[in-house]
Structure formats: C-alpha cells, structure tokens
Amino acid sequence: MTTTAQQLASGASRHSLGRGLAGQALLAVEQARTDQGSWARAHEQIMRMTNTPVAAHLMNSLFEGAPAVAYVLTAADQPTYRPALRTLDCHIDGLTRERLRRAHQRIDGRQLPALREFDLISGLTGLGVYQLRRHHGGELLDAILRYLVRLCEPVRDLPGWWTANDTADHPSTSWPGGHGNLGIAHGISGPLALLSIAAQHGHLIPGQTDAIQTICSWLDHWQQDTWWPGTITKHEHDSDQLQQAGPQRPSWCYGTPGIARAQQLAGLALADRTRQHRAETALLNCVTDDIQHAQLGDTTLCHGWSGLLQATIRAADDAAPGGPLTRQLPDLRRRQEILVESRTSQHRPELLEGSTGIQLVQLSAMSTTNAMQAWDACLLLSS
C-alpha cells in the first residue's frame, strides 16, 4: 500500500503548473473554453491531476501544489469543482498568511529577501495572482499588496527587492553582494505587473501608486535604449554602470518582452501614456530585431518564441488598435508555427518549457475571447 508521504511525492509533478499535469489540465480547460476541445476531456485531465493527495505547505506557490491545482479549477469555473476549491482555499489562505508573516518579520529585521519570498513563480506575487483570479480582490489580496508596497522600501542602501543570492536563489561566491533581478518570472517586474493589474481593476491601497512609480524609476534607470538587462550585479549597482554590451535573449521570463509588458501595464495603471508608449516601442524593437531573435534557442513559452509571441499578443491588445504591434503578429505567428513544426519531437508536455505552453499560445493567437478570462494570468500577461 502506498503511504501518504509517497503519494505526496509522486503527486508533486501532477500538481505542478509549470512542469506537470496541472499545466496539461489548464490546456484542456482552455481548449474547452475556446471551443477547441470538450469539457469532458477537460474533466478527465482534472481528475488525472487530482487523483493523488494535493500538498498544501509553505513551499507551495502559484506554480506548485494546492495553489496550482486551485488555479486550474478556478479557470475551469464549473460548479462541480466549487467544494474542492473551498477546501483548497482554506489551506492556501493559511499558507499565504504565514508567508506574509515571515516576510514582514524579515523586513522588520532589515534583511534582504530571497527571490522565492516575493517572485511570481515561487513567491507572494504568484499567490497574489491567485487571490485576484479566484476572489477578484479581498482581504488577502490587499495584504499581499501591502507587503509589495513594503518590499519597495530600501534596505541598506539597496532596493528592497535586492537579494543576497544568485539567480538560482542560492548563496554563491560567483555573485558577491547578490543581485537585482528585473525579470517578470523571478524579479521585480512580477510585483510591478501585479500592482498595476490590481490597480486597473480598482484594488488600490495606500502607497501602491508610489510603489509602482518606485519600481518603474529603477527599471528606467537601467533601461538601455529599448531593452533591459535581466539582472544587475552588486558591482554594476555600486559603479552605476552596466557591463552587458547588448540585449540578452528576448524571453518572457527574464527578457525585454516580460519587462516591457509589465511597464506597459504600469503605464495603463498610472494613466501615463508616455510610459506606455515607451514600453510598446521597446517591445516593437525587440519583435523586429533579428539579432535579438537569433538568441532564441527554442520555441517554448518561458525561454523561446512562444513567450515572445504571447507577450506581444497581450501588449497589442492594450496598444492602439491596428498599431505596429498588431501588424507584427501575423509574421510572428508564422515564424513560431514553422519552428514548432520543425521541432515537435523535442517538446515535453510541459507549460513553461514544452508543448503544453506552445499549444496554449497557439490558442491565444487564434482566440477572440476576453483576456482577463484567459489562461496567462499566471504569467502576468493578462490585464
């Protein structure tokens, strides 16, 4: 007989949004929602995802464990899943409160955070996405927004989101003094996007607008023409000089597409047309730059062409109708389709780095449904 601990271990990949069956279930839900598949098939995938015990502990995040499963059930929006969601919410709310308590304790002690405290993939920003999607606001979303406002307070003459760790969130002598992370997946563009999206939907707390502006000012400082670096080292911070010579890979997770989309969302939240236009211009330059394209080594969502396409689809939705970003979409879609067809056998069934995410982006490319109801809120691309 399988023990509970063994069941939880074997269920870990099932309950991963980025790497496991939760992502595959989300694809089936989105296929059903856009009339590209059946709800019966989506239900089969959800049952497959949930046929082992779902973990609910402090290491859980939007992409792992109970919040990942609940995100999929929320996306499905079917009456049959409501009892399960209520049960999951009890656990998710509890772990969120404890993570907030620890985060505030860390801030009170004037210590630097780990990326996994605040980021989208593993941290409180991702849990804030869940609260916004599931409850459209509420006490816990406000609590997370208050935490993100505090995150923007400087610590020891460093930005409050500066981490002493390396980019893998571990202590490392290769990163003396740690780093500042600009990316949307693990860096400060994730909190910026959540603060901005929440504001657009009427969820504003004291200091939120100032926090958005603080993050934007820091990103402005490190912007190079129409691109941003993914990280800033302590040496670069102290010397106020970037060592990177040119744009890095234009990926969703660390590159200009995710950062530009977060900046566009901030411009929309602040009614700052200049900021919005600058962000759209940066993304347009990225989309039309073959030198940047050459750095994309695959077609996946996290690191490759699909992430660039998805960010552009959502940015075009919020830009001027029929504008230059919209005009670039047909060519981007064709290039992605050609590359996907040539590399089909290389793709694992995963959302972030495999075929599941690629198929979700292809659904977005052909869909006319409202973006707020779409799957990619988990990437902080939908407003």
TrEMBL record:
Signal peptide: none annotated. The keyword Repeat does not apply. It comes from the Bacteria. Keywords: Metal-binding, Zinc. It holds the Pfam family LANC_like. GO terms for biological process: peptide modification. One of its GO terms (molecular function) is metal ion binding. InterPro entries: LanC, LANC-like. The keyword Metal-binding applies. Zn(2+) binds at residues 253, 302-303. This is Lanthionine synthetase C family protein. It comes from Kribbella sandramycini.
